[in-house]
Amino acid sequence: xxxxxxxxxxxxxxxxxxxxxxxxxxxxxxxxxxxxxxxxxxxxxxxxxxxxxxxxxxxxxxxxxxxxxxxxxxxxxxxxxxxxxxxxxxxxxxxxxxxxxxxxxxxxxxxxxxxxxxxxxxxxxxxxxxxxxxxxxxxxxxxxxxxxxxxxxxxxxxxxxxxxxxxxxxxxxxxxxxxxxxxxxxxxxxxxxxxxxxxxxxxxxxxxxxxxxxxxxxxxxxxxxxxxxxxxxxxxxxxxxxxxxxxxxxxxxxxxxxxxxxxxxxxxxxxxxxxxxxxxxxxxxxxxxxxxxxxxxxxxxxxxxxxxxxxxxxxxxxxxxxxxxxxxxxxxxxxxxxxxxxxxxxxxxxxxxxx
Length: 355
What we know:
This protein is of the alpha+beta class. Helices cover 27% and strands 28% of the residues. It has two domains: 2-61 and 171-351, Aminopeptidase; 63-155, Elongation Factor Tu (Ef-tu), domain 3. It has helices at residues 2-6, 15-28, 117-120, 138-144, 173-191, 213-222, 267-279, 296-299, 327-341, 346-351, and strands spanning 31-34, 40-45, 52-58, 63-69, 76-81, 93-98, 101-108, 130-132, 152-155, 160-162, 167-170, 199-205, 226-234, 255-260, 285-289, 308-316, 323-326. Helix 7 links the parallel strand 14 (255-260) and strand 15 (285-289). Helix 2 packs parallel to helix 5 (173-191) and helix 5 (173-191) crosses helix 9. It is globular. The two termini are 42 Å apart.
């Protein structure tokens, strides 16, 4: 999880993260393939080739791309890759990935000491910020450091734990957490010789944060009979959040999505997920995300459709340099997915769509 979190992989620039996923997936999968966008798909055969069950976490993270270099001092202008809240950016360190290698920088703006009283009362917007790479001219930035327009930028934030390892803190948990859950499911299927009456595909999709693009290509490639998006969920146990806005809480178990802006889950499938959690005594939470979506938004409409659900790990402060989660929620998400795979035979999956 540390390696995945710290890896460099903004949307469209996921190769470093993809290499980690490939390395680990090859240890436990029967076959590892790629789509033509950069997503990874690992196949694990069960006792039957049908149904095809797709488990997917996206490997991209929110980041930035360099859009310009200041003529006078070599500061960088940038545009976001994915959704960023302006107020979480200032003062944070980033890494610019150039053709020559990584360049450290910090997101900055006009110093508050030089702002008028009216300016200090206003939120600084992204278009007034810049990335300082320590240069003193455009020539330094371009020729000495090798920075070019179009280079990707990602947060720099070491992975760490707290509360004796019960809590993890780091960047890119959205959605390296889901990627980690998928890889752990794959590992346990192999090492524990879990019997599952289906063909399992564990995918690491790309470019989710900029339009669920890898989900489209992976869905077309796998043609799943059933799909589970492995994601983070917004942990609503933060001051100022109403329960109906984000019902999931950190440390209370994985969330089962009732609906979001991109998908209404298959209700029979959702019922099975809930029943499975209760039968296996796995803590769970029912969640809603009225204003967001996941890769399941594409999976559930691939071809003639695929019953889909989202299983999430409640996480605080996503889309920032430092998200926080409870490690027990990851373990319970893995256990829930494994329990589901033992139940998802052809007859059961067909029953989800028969009337």
